[in-house]
Amino acid sequence: YVTNCSACHNQNPAVDGAVGPAVKGSNFELLKARIVNGTYPPGYTPKRTSQIMTRLPLTAGPTAPSTAGF
Fold first, then answer.
1. CA–CA distance, 31 with 66 (Å, rounded to integer)
2. Which of the two ends of the chain, N or C, has the fewest CB atoms closer than 10 A to its terminal CB?
3. What whole-number distance in Å separates Cα of residue 56 and Cα of residue 15?
4. pTM for the whole structure
5. Which of 19, 13, 53, 18 lies closest to 37, judged by CA?
6. CA of 40: how far to CAs of 2, 18, 60, in Å?
7. What is the helix (H) or strand (E) element at residue 28, kind and residue range?
8. Where are the domains of the chain?
9. What totals of helices (H) and strands (E) does the chain contain, helices first?
10. Which residues of the chain have pLDDT under 50?
11. What is residue 2's three-state secondary structure?
């Protein structure tokens, strides 16, 4: 999280970042959809309407659950 996400989302995942919203409490399915595919799970309403988040599929490997737990 600190390496790949905090520049946009904030080092504290409970606080909104300059570009991205707070991610604390986001479930694994949401994080995986956003990080790997650049999409949202069906029926999810985004916190922000921008489409600027970069896909980072390499971060969705074995450490993905730890990112969700951060």
1. 11
2. C
3. 21
4. 0.75
5. 53
6. 22, 21, 15
7. helix 28-32
8. 6-69
9. 3, 0
10. none
11. coil
Contacts 24+ apart (CB under 8 A), 14-21: 19/50, 19/52, 20/48, 20/53, 21/47, 21/48
Sequence letter at residue 34: R
User: Residues 13, 2: contact at Cβ < 8 Å?
Assistant: no
Distance between CA atoms of residues 37 and 17, nearest Å: 21
Burial classification of residue 8, based on how many CB atoms lie within 10 Å of its CB (0-12 exposed, 13-18 middle, 19 or more buried): middle
Q: Look at phi and psi of residue 43 and say left if phi exceeds 0, alpha if psi is from -120 to 50, else beta.
A: left
- List C-alpha distances in Å: 62 to 8, 28, 31, 40, 48: 23, 13, 14, 21, 28
Q: State residue 56's pLDDT score.
A: 84
